[in-house]
Each structure stands twice: as structure tokens, then as C-alpha cells.
Design a protein that fits this description.
Blueprint (H helix, E strand, L loop, with lengths): L2 E7 L11 H9 L6 E6 L3 H11 L5 E6 L4 H12 L9 E3 L4 E6 L1 H20 L3 E9 L3 H15 L4 E7 L2 E9 L4 H14 L4 E3 L5 H11 L4 E5 L5 H7 L8 E6 L3 H8 L3 H7 L4 H13 L5 E7 L14 E7 L4 E7 L4 H20 L1
Parallel strand pairs: 1-2, 1-3, 3-5, 10-11, 10-12
Antiparallel strand pairs: 4-5, 6-8, 6-9, 7-8, 12-13, 13-14
Length: 360
């Protein structure tokens, strides 16, 4: 069976983009392999109709991905090619020959694919795919590629591996159908988990913040955060998990150097001699939370998110993440690449991972 995606984009505006990668990833996660992905200008309806007509000749499913304002146009174009006797039911239109869809872009579209589109396709093809999701953090690309290579050998061509990632996290999905021997799927997971054990936080698809909260509950620990350049993002990620109130004590956003000294007990001499963005300052920020006596685990972040360097000349992307308990405090330095959002979100994920690693 063949499936295709057509992305409707504004080709005249280079600053405009349609997030379709997460949507195509969702198809792969559900065991739906795309034979063709086209990006077409939304203001060229004749071209869009032409490609839908061409794909209709041998595809079992054709899906248009677009921003919400183009929904009516996309559905109208599909109707003009496929006929209007069968109406859209939500995002899908199903005829005897094939299934059509108009799917939102981004994360909403990915959820739509997994919750609505894939189940409908499974019914049509009489085959349901299962998946096991592993999550790793801060793993070098070479390590991930090596692990995937070993896993591919263990798979013996009887299942599909799909890896995707952003902001320092990598999701690896093992996708298989009911005809795949369970022992092969289990062996592939074992290989991946073994090769990536230093970076692994889940084999069941849970989010990193959820895994941290679960670990804190299991060990009956309280956590506090002291954040500078991440601006509350670490604490926000933790409290986004239901039940986090049982383990989260406080979050301090000490952006200014004076706040670091006044609120966290960072030594002024440390700031003057080592700088606000330094190993020593991160250490003392975490130590300030621990010595307060109200938490068992502390996370501290300081860095330069960019786009420019700070006044000391520290390059954008430099950050120090401290994670500590009453027994020890460790500081991790990273030189991250990307824009301000990428640097900040990556640092947040790395900080959460090192905290989970400390107790998990």
C-alpha cells in the first residue's frame, strides 16, 4: 500500500514555514511509510489538483498538511478531484478506493495522525503496528548511529527503527506488526538500551520531566531549582507533570548577579573573579539551595543563551548546569549551538536529565 503527503506552503515568503516534519514522523511512528512527500505553493491550486490526481492513480492514502487557515481550500481541492459525493468527517474523507486527509501542521497534526489517521489506515490494511519508544538525552550523534546500526542487525529486517530528536533529546521507536516475533523486538530494545545506557531515561515513552518526578517520588526526595539564563524553564517543566507538588519545593529565578548573591549565597568574589557564567557560580547556586535545608536535590543553571556574547566575552551557547545533593554537587559544561530558543531548551533538557541521572 502506498501513501503520500502534500505540504501546502507559502513559497513567496522565505520567513514562513510549515512544520510538517513532526507530522511525517508521526506517520512513521504508526508504521505508515510515505512513498512521496511534496511541498507545493498553496496559491497554485492547479498544481495541487494535478498532483492529487496523479497520486490518486496508485496511492491508497493522500494527506494534505497545512495551517488551519487553508483547511477549506485544501478540502475543496480534494473534493474537486475525488468527487463530492463522500464528505469529509473531521480531517478525513474515505472512499472505497482510498483515504484522503487534511491535517494541521506541527504537534497538533502529529497527534491527529496517531489518534485518528493511523487507526483508520490500520483498519483498511488489516494490520496493526505496535511501537516501543526509547528516550535518550545528551547522546552524541555518533553514539546514536552506532546503536541503531547494531539494532538494525538484531532486527533481521523484521521491524522498523525510527529516530528523531530536538533540543538534546532523541526518541527511538521500534515499530513492528503482529507477525514480528516478540523475541526479536525484545532483543532490539535490549541492544539499544545497552548501547545507550549512559543516556537512557525511558523505554516506555514517558517524558523526561515525568521520569524525574517519578524518581523523586520513589526516593521520597524534594527538588529545588536556581535558574539564570533558563528563566524558570527547568522548574516549569517539572511542575507541568501532574503530582509534581509532592516533590517540588521551590524555584528561584536569579537572573541578575546581585540576586545570585542575595538569594542563593553566591560569593561576590566568585562573581568578580570567575564570572556569573562559570563552573564556580553554578556550583555555589546549587549549594545555596542545598544548604537551605529544604530540598534533597538541587538544579542550578547559568549561561549565555545568545544571540550575542555577554559582557565578559563568554561565547553564546556556553552554559554550566549544576546538579547536587547533600553528598555531592556536579557541574556540567556545554557549548551549545543554535539560536536562543534552541540553546535554552536544550540546556533545560540536559539539566533535567542530569538530575534524573543523579537519582534514577
Amino acid at each position: 500500500m502506498k501513501y503520500a503527503v502534500i505540504v501546502l506552503a507559502n513559497m513567496k515568503n522565505p520567513l514562513s514555514s510549515v512544520d510538517y516534519q513532526s507530522v511525517t514522523d508521526a506517520f512513521l511512528s504508526g508504521g505508515v511509510f510515505l512513498d512521496e512527500v511534496l511541498v507545493l505553493p498553496y496559491d497554485a491550486p492547479a498544481a495541487v489538483s494535478k498532483h492529487i490526481t496523479r497520486l490518486s492513480q496508485d496511492c491508497d492514502g493522500i494527506f494534505l498538511v497545512c495551517d488551519g487557515v487553508l483547511n477549506d481550500f485544501a478540502k475543496g481541492t480534494v473534493d474537486s478531484v475525488s468527487g463530492g459525493s463522500v464528505k469529509f468527517e473531521g480531517v478525513l474523507k474515505e472512499t472505497q478506493e482510498r483515504i484522503y486527509g487534511v491535517i494541521p501542521a506541527g504537534s497538533e497534526g502529529a497527534r491527529t495522525v496517531l489518534s485518528q489517521v493511523v487507526p483508520r489506515i490500520d483498519r483498511r490494511r488489516g494490520q496493526r503496528y505496535c511501537r516501543i519508544e526509547l528516550g535518550v538525552a545528551a547522546a552524541p550523534e555518533g553514539e546514536v548511529r552506532r546503536a541503531l546500526s547494531f539494532a538494525e542487525r538484531a532486527a533481521e529486517g523484521k521491524l522498523f527503527l525510527h529516530a528523531s530528536g530536538e533540543y538534546g533529546l532523541t526518541k527511538i521507536e521500534v515499530v513492528y506488526n503482529r507477525e514480528t516475533p516478540k523475541m526479536i523486538a525484545d532483543e532490539v530494545v535490549r541492544v539499544l538500551a545497552g548501547e545507550l545506557r549512559d543516556y537512557l531515561y525511558t523505554v516506555n515513552g514517558e517524558s523526561l520531566p515525568a521520569r524525574l518526578v517519578d524518581a523523586l517520588k520513589l526516593h521520597r526526595m524534594k527538588i529545588s531549582t536556581a535558574e539564570s539564563f533558563t528563566g524558570g524553564g527547568v522548574g516549569g517543566a517539572i511542575v507541568s507533570v501532574p503530582g509534581a507538588s509532592a516533590v517540588f519545593y521551590e524555584g528561584v529565578n536569579a537572573y541578575d548577579s546581585k540576586a545570585k548573591c542575595a538569594r542563593l549565597g553566591v560569593n561576590e568574589f566568585t562573581i568578580k573573579t570567575k564570572g556569573a557564567v562559570s563552573d564556580e557560580t553554578a556550583y555555589e547556586m546549587a549549594a545555596g539551595l542545598i544548604t537551605g535545608g529544604n530540598c534533597d536535590l538541587a538544579i542550578a543553571t547559568t549561561g549565555v543563551a545568545g544571540p550575542d556574547s555577554d559582557g565578559s566575552g563568554t561565547p553564546a551557547g556556553t552554559c554550566y548546569l549544576a546538579v547536587g545533593t547533600k553528598q555531592r554537587i556536579r557541574v556540567f559544561r556545554y557549548d551549545l549551538l543554535g539560536d536562543r530558543e534552541t540553546v535554552t531548551k536544550t540546556a533545560i533538557n540536559f539539566a533535567l536529565f542530569h538530575a534524573y541521572e543523579e537519582i534514577g
